[in-house]
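Bumping with the actual sequence this time:
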Amino acid sequence: MNAPRVYLDYDQAALDAACNQAAYASNMEALNLRRRQLSAEARRHLPTALRLSYGATEIEQLDVFQAPRTNAPVVVFLHGGAWRAQSAANYSFLAECFLGAGAHFVLPDFIPVTEAAGDLFAMVEQVRRAVAWVYKNAASFGGDASRIYLGGHSSGSHLGSCVLLTDWERDYGLPPEVVKAAALCSGMYDLYPVSLSARSSYVSFTERMIAELSAIRHLDRIRVPLIIGHGSNETPEFQRQARDFHAALTAAGEPAELVVGEGYNHFEIMETFASPYGLLGRAALRLFGLNT
């Protein structure tokens, strides 16, 4: 007898796997090791990043890799980790691509959902506060507050999509378009199916959370050009969500481009942000108007 479907054509086991990249990336641990090594090497040869606080708690700090010129654009990148793992330090290797194009590169840390009682709102509030801090303090590290761009991967792309929903005027007293463009890869933009999966064991999904933090339900609040990326070897649900988000944005008349990395899994495609000749690195630099 077939197992009952819980969402679309997924039964429970299939949905759990479709929301779990490890089930579709047998080399995940090797890629995690590679990312840590590349980041350690980057920190050895790049100018030392500034470690600055953007909020009151210990985790609310960010690394600022400074470009060798002032009044430069700023790229803020939100790391992934299934909302519960990784740190800014493990993504330092992405900085060199954007520094070489003349932009500062900012990597915020933020609370894991497992340390926030399963509350994604706590994470979203911190990353929004980090971006607001960058806007208010850009001049202090040579940045141009009028040219802030956003990148993200995996759960960092989900958080990035929530940043794009921010009412900057109401909540922070800032201009309405703090972020000018975003490149988001391998994220979830509709939390409803995720709430039905095994991720509910550590994320305390509520109807309010699903409604407010699913970017695909708030297209009217997204007013900047986007790149939406995914790899062809990612889980079917991550691929579907990227395609559907892109299609919904396009249907709403929003400027959005879908970038599909053929032969890349979830972790491999993120590495292409690290090179101006990589699939996402090239696309992001073009979208952000950065010279290579």
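The tokens above came from a reply further down the thread. The chain has a mean pLDDT of 97.
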